[in-house]
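User: Hi! I'm working on a homework problem where we have to compare a predicted structure to a textbook description. Could you give me the structure for the chain below?
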Amino acid sequence: MSIGSAILSLEVLARKAEYTAEAFNSLNSNATLTKQQYHALDSASIRIWEVVAKVADKIDHLKEDHVKWTEGEGKALAAQAVSARDNLIAHGRPKGPATFRRNITLFFDGPKDSPIDSSSVKSRNKLTRTRCEWIRCLSPHGIISWAAAFPPTVWTGGFMPDHAFDYLIENVEPEEFQAWPLKIGEILRAFAAEEPLRRSNSYSAFLEGQVRST
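Assistant: Happy to help. Predicted structure tokens:
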């Protein structure tokens, strides 16, 4: 079972439990129960508490696993963004120009579906387009850092798990903004002169924000 399916199942179960509890509380307080009925209620109550305890225990383990991931792989990914940003500032150009251009184009033009694409490819493209929307919500500094640090085969749908992507969205922004070398601005403006970014309003807005933030 996936995490999404588990959450949905728990939400449905919680709603049913709430409804059952309300219905149970509405029972006539003067009702007389048999010994067997009292036993059945006690047994059901114990089973419910046991299930709740198991779910809570699993959630605690998931939290612990996430903390371990953050301390290891999460911080390594964030450090990769810092290293790429430092390299841009030091050398005035992306270490991987093709990757940088491909990322910028994806952020603002997204992957396109083809009529011959399989359902799985279309699903990955849809996830990638959603991720591009989140990346575009970053500051120009965060967008440029991401473009320089992570090839599409790292962060697009089907490659990077959601928890890793969410972590990067929260941690890729530089703590202190530094002015980018003039060459970076020239490269970004050159992209705007060519298809498909020439027709992109969102890319034009990004360039304006990039100029203001330098």
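For your comparison, note the following. The CA atoms of residues 55 and 131 lie 30 Å apart. The chain has a mean pLDDT of 91. Good luck with the assignment!
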